[in-house]
Amino acid sequence: MHKLPPQLLGSKRPQLFSGLTEASLQKLLTYAVTQEHGPNHILVQQGDIPDGVYLVLEGEVRTLRSNEGGEEASIRLLEVGDTCMEAVLFMSGPSPISVQSLTQSRVMMIPARIIKQHVLDDSHFALNIISIVSHHYRNAMHQIDAMNIKTPLQRVGYYFLEKHLEAGHDSLEFTLPFRKQTVANYLGITAETFSRVLKQMRDLGISVENDTIRMKDAFSLCHFCDSDTEALCDRKDKDNCKHCIMHSKG
Amino acid sequence: MHKLPPQLLGSKRPQLFSGLTEASLQKLLTYAVTQEHGPNHILVQQGDIPDGVYLVLEGEVRTLRSNEGGEEASIRLLEVGDTCMEAVLFMSGPSPISVQSLTQSRVMMIPARIIKQHVLDDSHFALNIISIVSHHYRNAMHQIDAMNIKTPLQRVGYYFLEKHLEAGHDSLEFTLPFRKQTVANYLGITAETFSRVLKQMRDLGISVENDTIRMKDAFSLCHFCDSDTEALCDRKDKDNCKHCIMHSKG
DNA sequence: CGGAGGGTTGAGATTCATCAACGCGTGTGG
DNA sequence: CCACACGCGTTGATGAATCTCAACCCTCCG
Question: Do A238 and A180 belong to one domain?
Fold first, then answer.
């Protein structure tokens, strides 16, 4: 009987499984297999027929597109508990992305056939899939936006803001979840520019020490807030928020 | 009793309604309303709570993100029969995108509440939603890819290739579905660069006259083919395809 | 005839990628 | 214990590519 590792059963339960009955979950996991991979291993090759959904149990994974020249564009960066390839299963045809382990990793793969069937059997599961894919799509929109009409500084700022909100608005400190090179590529800039941007950040009251980001106050990142990110902020209706660049610039 | 306009009932039936029973479709359309808008009208404002799914009955519509500076990044360009905002409904929170009519347009709006309920009631409809959102997500991935690791020439080439495949591999001619300015922005380049790229295209055997694109032969666009786009091509297994840049460059 | 909008063309400025060198911490092997 | 190499990140100089700005052409339309 397949069972999820304990750390993924509590509050960090993957959204894919959220709200499912125990029976439904068990059915889903019946044919799941777990794999272990070293760093930089290709789990799915762009152009291949996708075989299932991947859940990261341990390590770091990314999805990416690459061209003949070997250049790579990161689509998503996954941490423990994240899943990928849900959307790809429902595109007919070969996978538009590769999946690659960044570090030593352990992943669970649920076969495509199971997922597709389960969508029809359990409407709650279908809803989970829709939510997840929509969420990914939202991120993709932000990436598109970023690369079109944001400066590198703004991209990094927005990325920091997201991490800050994830960490909770009270914590004035968070750590980069991935190597700088990796984050830089995800943001569509080179490692060099990323490094230079980090220096600019210091002038804005954000100190960067290795992979630890420390902010002077909880509003240092408000410069980078967005009409739709704003909603995630605890203090959006507080007076303080009025001081945000976003509101004062008008 | 709401009924879809006849032109959307045949082979061009929106994917949203594909394969639904008549009863299911009627239920979905019960509370649908149609609206008429002049050009450049904002149907949904970025940051607002989304009210439903929009189906384009007539005209051209786009989804976009914009910043305080007034710069805009097009996310999708919609023609008659296309839908938008499906994904946004399932992101909790305000809409990350605006929806804007490009020309005089007629659209049908299906309220959020109806869509969300119907996903639970009709698993086939849920599957439709998943497919659509996944498809949008796939396009978004291509956009991200394009803006990171493709030259403007390659972006236009790929866009042309898509239009060519839509038109059928046999037709050596197709037309730009939108104003050049609009397409340019969608591709993340300025109208000027777009214009200059079109001149380069001529050297590759693609003539551009106003909004009509004519290719010397069916393989002129193979330069721009992709490991996952390849699958859409009729001739992928034919010998001719071996001549594609993609294969010969190695 | 004149104006407006879309598209094109040219010249210049800006910005980021590229390339190369260096610093620094870590792990390994002598 | 030290020497060394390696990976990652940083810094600086350079160049290329695209955006910006401006002028112009063309068509459509009043």
Answer: yes
pLDDT per residue as tens digits for the range B193-207: 999 999 999 989 999
State the pLDDT confidence band at B218, using cuts at 50, 70 and 90.
Answer: confident
What's the domain count of chain A? Answer: 2
Q: What is the CATH number of the domain that holds A235?
A: 1.10.10.10
Whole-number Å distance between alpha carbons of B94 and B130: 20
pLDDT over 70 at B2, yes or no: no
Q: Which strand C nucleotides have any atom less than 7 A from protein CB atoms?
A: 6-11, 15-20
Q: Is the CB of A193 under 7 A from strand D?
A: no
Are residues A126 and B126, on separate chains, in Cβ contact within 8 Å?
yes
CB A90 within 8 A of CB A97: no
Q: What is the pLDDT of residue A237?
A: 58
Model pTM score: 0.95
- Residue B147 counted as domain residue: no
Among A88, A95, A141, beta carbon nearest to B65? A141
Residues B108 and B174 in one domain: no
Same domain? B89 vs B194: no
Please give the average pLDDT of every successive group of 10 residues along chain A, which has 250 residues. Answer: 73 91 96 96 96 97 95 97 98 96 97 98 98 98 98 98 91 96 98 97 92 91 90 67 47
What local confidence, expressed as pLDDT, does residue B5 receive? 79
Query: Does residue A64 sit within a domain?
Result: yes
Q: Is residue A233 part of a domain?
A: yes
Query: Is nucleic acid strand D under 7 Å from A97's C-beta?
Result: no
Distance CA B58, CA A210 (A): 54
What chain A residue is nearest to B137 in terms of C-alpha separation?
A: A137
DSSP 3-state of A34: strand
Contact A130 B131 (CB under 8 A): no
Q: How far is CA B154 from the centre of its chain?
A: 18
> B101-117 pLDDT, tens per residue?
999 999 999 999 999 99
| Claim to verify: residue A102 and residue A124 sit in the same structural domain | yes
Determine the distance from the C-alpha atom of residue A142 to the mean position of all C-alpha atoms in its chain, rounded to a whole number.
Answer: 12
- CATH assignment at residue B92: 2.60.120.10
Domain check: are B90 and B174 in the same one? no
Q: Which of A149, A172, A132 is nearest to A226 (CA)?
A: A149
What stretch of H or E contains A245?
helix A245-249
- Name the minimum distance, in Å, from the CA of B56 to any CA of chain A: 21
Can you tell me whether residue A240 is helix, strand or coil? helix
pLDDT, residue A249, reads 39
Answer for A180: CB within 7 Å of strand D.
Answer: yes
Q: Which of B101, B116, B142 is the C-terminal boundary of a domain? A: B142
Is A135 in the same domain as A238?
no
Domain membership of residue A244 as a residue range: 152-249
Return the CA Rg of chain A: 19
Partner-chain residue, chosen from B73, B133, B148, that has the shortest CB–CB distance to A145: B73
Considering CB atoms only, which of A75, A93, A136 is closest to B228?
A93
Q: Is residue A162 part of a domain?
A: yes
